[in-house]
Amino acid sequence: MEVKATGIVTKNHNNGKKINVQWKIETKLKEWYYFTFIRVIWKVKSNPENWMCVALIDFTFYDKSQDICHFENEIYWKKNLNKKSGDKKITKRQNQKNIFEERFVQQVKL
């Protein structure tokens, strides 16, 4: 996921279609892997109990780097990162795309 801007909702028109946002455009695009969502605008709720939420908020708003190893050692991704495609190992980027598509399909089925 590429973080291009962050923003604060300044007004909700309560029609399910329109909000006003005070945007802060990022001068340097930031690339985030794992724990992503498909929406263009994504509200990340602060949850101190969930280290992934904390990591994403720290990355997005406080310029902390993402601990890729921590994610890759998480049970879900550890299992999926070790999958092989034919004789060649799936690259990290390809695997993230596969995981994203799998999660998307699961959400669509709900």
Q: What is the end-to-end distance? A: 23 Å
The number of helical runs is 4
Estimate what percentage of residues fall within beta strands: 25-35%
Q: What general form does the structure show? A: elongated
State the order of secondary-structure elements, H for helix, E for strand: EEHHHEEH
* Average pLDDT level: 75
Largest sheet: 2 strands, antiparallel
The computed structural class is: alpha+beta
Per DSSP E runs of 2 or more residues, the count of β-strands stands at: 4
Taken together, the total number of domains comes to: 1
Low-confidence stretches: none
Widest sheet: strand ordering:
1-2
Rg over C-alpha atoms, rounded to the nearest angstrom: 16 Å
Oligomer: single chain
- Overall helicity: 25-40%
Can you put this structure into words, describing what you see?
It is a single chain. By secondary structure, the chain is an alpha+beta fold. The chain has one domain. Helices cover 38% and strands 25% of the residues. The strands form two sheets. The chain has a two-stranded antiparallel sheet. Strands 3-4 form a two-stranded antiparallel sheet. A hairpin with a 2-residue loop joins strand 3 and strand 4.
